[in-house]
């Protein structure tokens, strides 16, 4: 009989326990995976703080993962896009299991599916990745990672990369020579910086902190960086105004995760500007804005929460095309064992790592 360790979260304020469960062979439509690397996401920290509604029972969590296929269920021979899979292959997966049939799933917002079974209760195999062995349901998204792509390069931005890819897709077509402001230099902000740089943006101004994240932004294509703590909203507005020759930004991406960023971001937009909101997915807040500006500047505000298979596939493609060239793995500044998960989450909560990962095996 085989056993695997897993992290258990019960409720905010309670310690995260590491327990052992029997590793069951996969059902015919499942895949058993040995977890190679599991990214720690800002949303995991929100869960710990109680900002994310949860059940006060033991659950597994962790949703940014790459692993090696231990065993394929009899009916599974390909990934979510039909690429053949074999034992020993590496896969990148999203462990939520949306039903695929309800209205929200139909509206391409499976994260709102009532049957998403997330976070999954312990005691049954599941695809969460703060564990040594994960079991992927056929409702999970899983994408084969070619052998020449480093697992670390796929996980560097965590779910920030598919989040950024899906969000930027919601902006629709845009010309290459645009001026962009990215609010936030965490994984989502950095992923947006890279994607918009690859898309040919004329200028990308990243507002964030600390210094090593701003250096990473520059490496990934930011043309200018502004320290949040060393400036005020007024000085940032003047800087963006100067850098865009008085026009204001064509696109502002909110990846800061704080509501105060919203009115500021709105004011940084120029005529016909688009504001993409990616980071305000938890808690609740009210802020003052000037709606007249939205009207008279033809502004559009676009929120994006969700997932699509295409963004997971593109995440692997970006790791393949740019991971080595831009040394993505240098952005993984902190690595932890499964037993150090709580310490790791606290560090991520304090914004210290660029990216922290758990290596459970
Ligand atoms: Zn995440
Ligand atoms: Zn559904």
Automatic annotation (TrEMBL):
Keywords: Metal-binding, Oxidoreductase, Zinc
Key word Methyltransferase present: no
InterPro entries for the chain: ADH-like_C, ADH-like_N, ADH_Zn_CS, ER, GroES-like_sf, NAD(P)-bd_dom_sf, Zn_alcohol_dh
Pfam families: ADH_N, ADH_zinc_N
Family stated for the protein in its record: Belongs to the zinc-containing alcohol dehydrogenase family.
CDD domains referenced in this protein's UniProt entry, alphabetically: MDR_TM0436_like (cd08231)
Protein name as annotated: Enoyl reductase (ER) domain-containing protein
Protein's UniProt keywords contain Zinc: yes
């Amino acid at each position: 009989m085989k056993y695997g360790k897993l992290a258990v979260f019960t409720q905010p304020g309670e310690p995260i326990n590491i327990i052992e469960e029997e590793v069951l062979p996969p059902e015919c439509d499942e895949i058993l995976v040995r977890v190679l690397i599991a990214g720690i996401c800002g949303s995991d920290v929100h869960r710990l703080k109680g900002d994310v509604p949860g059940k006060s029972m033991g659950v597994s969590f962790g949703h940014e993962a790459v692993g090696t296929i231990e065993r394929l269920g009899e009916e599974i021979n390909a990934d979510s896009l039909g690429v053949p899979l074999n034992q020993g292959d590496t896969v990148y997966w999203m462990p939520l299991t949306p039903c695929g049939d309800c209205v929200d799933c139909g509206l391409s917002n499976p994260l709102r599916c009532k049957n998403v079974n997330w976070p999954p209760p312990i005691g049954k195999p599941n695809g969460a990745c703060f564990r040594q062995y994960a079991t992927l349901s056929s409702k999970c998204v899983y994408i084969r990672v070619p052998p020449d792509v480093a697992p670390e390069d796929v996980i560097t931005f965590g779910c920030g990369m598919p989040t950024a890819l899906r969000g930027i897709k919601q902006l629709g077509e845009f010309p290459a020579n645009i001026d962009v402001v990215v609010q936030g230099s965490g994984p989502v902000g950095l992923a947006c910086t890279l994607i918009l740089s690859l898309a040919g943006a004329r200028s990308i101004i990243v507002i964030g902190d600390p210094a090593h994240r701003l250096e990473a932004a520059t490496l990934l294509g930011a043309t200018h960086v502004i320290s949040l703590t060393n400036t005020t909203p007024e000085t940032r507005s003047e800087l963006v105004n100067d850098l865009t020759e008085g026009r204001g930004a064509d696109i502002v991406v909110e990846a800061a995760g704080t509501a105060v960023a919203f009115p500021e971001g709105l004011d940084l937009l120029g005529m016909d500007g688009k504001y993409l909101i990616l980071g305000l997915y938890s808690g609740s807040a009210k802020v003052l804005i000037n709606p007249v500006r939205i009207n008279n500047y033809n502004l559009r505000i676009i929120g994006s929460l969700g997932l699509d298979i295409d963004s997971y596939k593109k995440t692997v493609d970006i790791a393949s095309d740019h991971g080595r060239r831009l040394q993505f793995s240098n952005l993984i500044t902190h690595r932890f064992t499964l037993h150090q998960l709580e310490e790791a989450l606290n560090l991520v909560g304090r914004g210290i790592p660029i990216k922290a990962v758990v290596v459970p095996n």
